[in-house]
Amino acid sequence: MAKKNVLEQLSEQMADVVASASQSIVRVSGRRRLAATGIVWSADGIIVSANHVVSKKRKSKVTLANGETHEAKVLGRDASTDIAVLKINAEGLQPMAKADGAGLKVGHFVLALGRPGHSTEATLGILSAVGDSWRTGAGGMIDRYLQTDVVMYPGFSGGPLVSAAGELIGLNSSALARGVSVTIPVATLNRVIEFLVSDGHIKRGYLGIKTQGVRLPAGQAEALKQETGLLLVGIEPGSPAEESGLLLGDIIVHFDGQPIRHGDDLISLLGTGIAGQKTPATIIRGGEVSEMSIKVGTK
Amino acid sequence: MSGSNKLEGAADKPLLLQQMGEEQAAIAERVQRSLAVVSNGGRSGGAGVVWSQTGVILTNAHVIRHRTPQVELTDGRQFEAEVIAHDQRRDLAFLQLPTADLFPIARGQSSSLRPGDWVLSVGHPWGVRGAASAGSVIAVGRPSEQVGRYEGDLIQVGLHLRPGHSGGPMVNAQGELVGLNTMIAGPNVGLAVPLKVIEAFAQEQFTAASSDFI
Q1: Inter-chain CB proximity A95 and B160 less than 8 Å
Q2: What domains are there in chain A, each with its CATH number?
Q3: Interchain contact, A129 vs B160, CB within 8 Å
């Protein structure tokens, strides 16, 4: 038999990658009409999918690669990052190996897999852009910006983006950005899934402050590259804010590395799983800019 | 992780798709050094590509809506540029920056492109800086239908061009410039002005006998 040419070898290897990864891809029937895709996260039945494909009004079902269908329980969901965690009664499932996100480069080949029907579907593309953390329209914190030129077919939401070696890079969602294909990286999945499995939702952080947006003095506006900040006009006794040393009259300008220009900025930050964490903040007190650490509580 | 499904062989010998991905990533990184952002007085623009070390930037004519567009290089430097050549029919323009230490893109040969050849387009789709998209050539030549006011040959490629890609480079598997991302023909087909057309335009504009622009 003639030796296979490079393109044939490539095709065979890609089909092998898809066949192997496909063992960890499930069909998620959680909404009317079109089913979507989910990823086997643990051998004992934890399945991760996109929040927007799992309706609150319906019982969800998960169909495994071997054709078995299970009733699924929704363990938790987070609309801000579009992640839902389901649990089925099954053992010995095959979770996906996770890629080390640090090695990802623009130009790497990637595959998107889906199982909205009864068999695996796959498309090929490349990583188009790799960037820093970003916030979704709903305020969710995504650890890295991953954009691909992969065509995401209907029902691919909740499915994996897979590296050329067959490792999980992230979860594809069509709901977070319009017109481009973005992927939620493994780092964000790890963080959010941990919260969702233990609490069912991401605990909102609580500071115990009342605030008002104010214009910053010209010199500081220029130095901090922002026009406005949040003036503290009330602090609840015994609150996390008081215990962290915040005072009436302080102006919060940065929180958790993000600029705070008005109240909505802080409100969306408090919804991103920073409850219970010591969080860096930049404030203006008595006309001086200073850094401090604030322990965010919960209510 | 036990029971996980990482492919055998991934550790000792990389799969072809991995090798190709690494080569593609290296090309993307090199092309980004010759990439520019072109904007018009704060308004959106597109991409540009470094044509010569002596400060000449190639872009699309339709990207330029200002007499003195701003150009930002990948290293962060910003310049006010002068439009030194402009042709609506071929949708090409050259800009001059007041600097002479740029990293020009290597040039290939668009006439040797064949249907099925691999190409990579780099630009700023929807403002995402230096994003790359890959695809293969569908056809090279005069399109069967008139495309806007454009006259001449075009490279048709099966890849996603988006607003912000215009004026950015399309390179071959050696990372050499073969075309300029110019138009969208449907969601998955991009059109590029071939390098041959660009070089003819450059010849007409810069008739100086020196090998570089003066």
Answers
A1: no
A2: 1-202 (2.40.10.120), 209-295 (2.30.42.10)
A3: no
From the list B6, B20, B133, the residue facing A149 with the nearest CB is B133
What structural domains does chain B harbor? 35-104 (2.40.10.120), 110-199 (2.40.10.10)
ipTM of the predicted structure?
0.80
CB-based contact A164 B17, cutoff 8 Å = yes
Task: Encode chain A (299 residues) as per-residue pLDDT tens digits.
Answer: 567 888 899 999 999 999 999 999 999 998 888 899 999 999 999 999 999 999 888 889 999 999 999 999 999 999 989 999 999 999 999 999 999 888 999 999 999 999 999 899 999 999 999 998 888 887 788 989 999 999 888 999 999 999 999 999 999 998 888 778 899 999 999 989 998 998 887 777 889 999 998 999 888 888 888 999 999 999 999 999 999 999 999 999 999 888 898 887 888 788 777 788 889 999 999 889 999 999 998 87
Phi first, then psi, for residue A268 (nearest 5°) are: -70, -35
Closest in A10, A92, A165 to B6, CB measured? A165
Contact criterion met (CB below 8 Å) for B5 and A23: yes
Beta strand spans in B51-201 (E): 56-59, 70-73, 78-80, 82-87, 92-96, 118-123, 131-141, 154-158, 169-171, 177-184, 190-194
Smallest Cα distance from B201 to chain A, Å? 30
Within 8 A of A151 by CB-CB distance, chain B residues are 188
